[in-house]
Amino acid sequence: MSAPRRGAPSATSTDLQPGRVVAAHGRHCLVETPDGERRICHPRGKKNPVVVGDAVLWQTSGDEGSIERVEPRRNLFYRQDELRTKSFAANLDQVLVLLAADPEFSERQLARALIAAEAEGIAVLVVLNKQDLQPTFERAWERLAPYRRMGVSVLPLCLNANAEHGLDTLQQRLDGRVTLVLGPSGVGKSTLVNRLVPHASALTGEISRALNSGKHTTTSTTWYWTDSRRHTALIDSPGFQEFGLNHIEPTQLAACMPDLRATLGSCRFYNCTHLHEPGCGVRAHVQEAGMAVVDDPLAIDANRYRIYGELFAELSDKRSY
Questions:
Q1: Of 80, 214, 215, 245, which one has the greatest count of Cβ atoms within 10 A?
Q2: Residues 58, 87 share a domain
Q3: In this structure, are residues 204 and 118 in contact, taking their beta carbons and an 8 Å threshold?
Q4: Residues 91 and 150 placed together within one structural domain of the fold
Q5: Domain-ending residue, one of 213, 236, 259
């Protein structure tokens, strides 16, 4: 437990109440109690150690509260920008990556999301929206074939009001879970969240006013309940976060990519980087671009292998500073 502020009474175990962080902005957090009450709280100390999804112990401090302790996390997600890596969501059951037939999605961004989830042991559900856009959808669906082959769940979706389908199947996959929803601009993420949480926009406004974040609301991660029983939750994070992978060693990267991991253990050298060494068991299974995968159940898509090389170089460069 952090040291109390000077002049503030120490909290005893009987003073502390359990809660969950459902929104955070700067030094302000919104904590929800087990009975559904929400209160603005502030973490002790100069740093803000809490993220959305954290289970915390807090105590009343006037009209607000102070967070005294963050309970151990089951998992933790990081995002990064040009300057730093920062944690932003914890205690997830799964990650939903929403893509669309148009705009064309980035496989590098998708790979980073999958690796970040794999490193934390979190299940991933990839959803491809705009099924009504043919033949664009079929081309996008085919690009996801390597992911389906390696065991990633991929669902089709159409949120067009005139031809909606796939939402019921998706809701079944969300039921009873805490799901972080991610997706780049233009894929229909706001539409999806509003379909699943009809009051999301109003709730976001309330949280904005409560945390005094105003125009910054769109940059904050927010927890929504999709049902009155508070049984199923969505965590909405704006944009498509550039996932922070700096906590992963370059030599651990292949083990976080299921298609590469399936071929590990047969390399000539125990410290093989799978980039240039002779006798590499991974490189032997890389499928040339454009070739049909018919005779190698361990085939590695050429694009996926290229992304592996790029990320290996990125993580190695970070450690050379």
A1: 245
A2: no
A3: no
A4: yes
A5: 236
Let me know if 271 is exposed, middle or buried by CB neighbors in 10 A (0-12, 13-18, 19+).
Answer: exposed
Is the Cβ–Cβ distance between 187 and 126 less than 8 Å?
no
- Asked if 258 and 118 touch (Cβ cutoff 8 Å), the reply is yes
Q: What is the per-residue pLDDT across 174-187, written as a single tens digit (0 to 9) for each?
A: 999 999 999 888 89
Strand runs labelled E in the chain:
17-25, 28-32, 38-43, 55-61, 64-70, 76-80, 85-90, 94-100, 123-129, 153-156, 178-182, 222-225, 233-236, 286-287, 300-301
Last residue of a domain, one of 204, 236, 268: 236
* Whether residues 219 and 142 fall in one domain: yes
Domain containing 138 equals 76-236
Residue 3: inside a domain: no
pLDDT (tens digit, 9 = 90+) per residue, 157-214?
999 878 789 999 999 999 999 999 998 888 999 889 989 998 766 566 566 656 665 4
Average pLDDT, the chain: 85
